[in-house]
Design goal:
Number of helices: 7
Structural class: alpha/beta
Largest sheet: 6 strands, mixed
Helix content: 25-40%
Strand order of the largest sheet: 2-1-3-6-5-4
CATH superfamily: MoaB/Mog-like domain
Strand content: 15-25%
Shape: globular
Length: about 180
């Protein structure tokens, strides 16, 4: 395991995957993926670049895109948006869990709690998270306002999780969002 000091200043790759039949078909412009990228740009102060894709609501297609972002694109973080509801075509959580080696249920739990404070239908959300190799994968909702609420709730833990996976050190603009790292002993 390399020391985290060796990873300071290392470029972080972040995958942003929009899951939408209509956006992937070009029927409308994706707003969710760009909203995530904009948020991350305003929060992250260390070097990073996005790997952005839009795919249809197809379980195999979603799973393949996540695998590619984790295994080939070497993303330390992959955030998905869309496909987390109860509708028949909402299969993002299933595709995510299919490719993960470990589930991280706390992410979905906190996102539902935060969302439930705003809308009673948040209980219908099925966001989850998991790990694939050195990649943290987090499902976000598909609406930009809900994305910000949910990502703000879980982001403070994301940089430390990436470090625990031996990924690069992700720093934030503390006036925009504070990340949590346990105090050194």
């Amino acid at each position: 395991m390399s020391d985290h000091k060796d990873r300071i200043g290392t470029l972080t790759r972040i995958g942003v995957l929009t899951v939408s039949d209509r956006a992937s078909a070009g029927e409308y412009r994706d707003e969710s993926g760009p909203a995530i990228i904009e948020l991350l740009r305003s929060w992250i102060s260390s070097p990073w670049e996005e790997v952005y894709r839009v795919v249809a609501d197809e379980r195999m297609t979603i799973a393949a895109a996540i695998r590619r972002m984790a295994d080939e694109d070497k993303c330390s973080l992959v955030v998905t948006t869309g496909g987390t509801g109860p509708a028949p075509r909402d299969v993002t959580p299933e595709a995510t869990l299919e490719v993960c080696e470990k589930e991280m249920p706390g992410f979905g739990e906190i996102m539902r709690k935060i969302s439930l404070d705003k809308v009673p239908t948040a209980i219908l959300s099925r966001q989850t998270a998991g790990l694939r190799g050195k990649t943290l994968i987090v499902n976000l909702p598909g609406r930009p306002r809900a994305i910000e609420d949910c990502l703000r709730a879980v982001f403070p833990a994301i940089p430390y999780c990436i470090e625990l996976l031996n990924g690069p050190r992700v720093e934030s603009h503390p006036d925009a969002i504070k990340v949590y790292r346990p105090p050194k002993k």
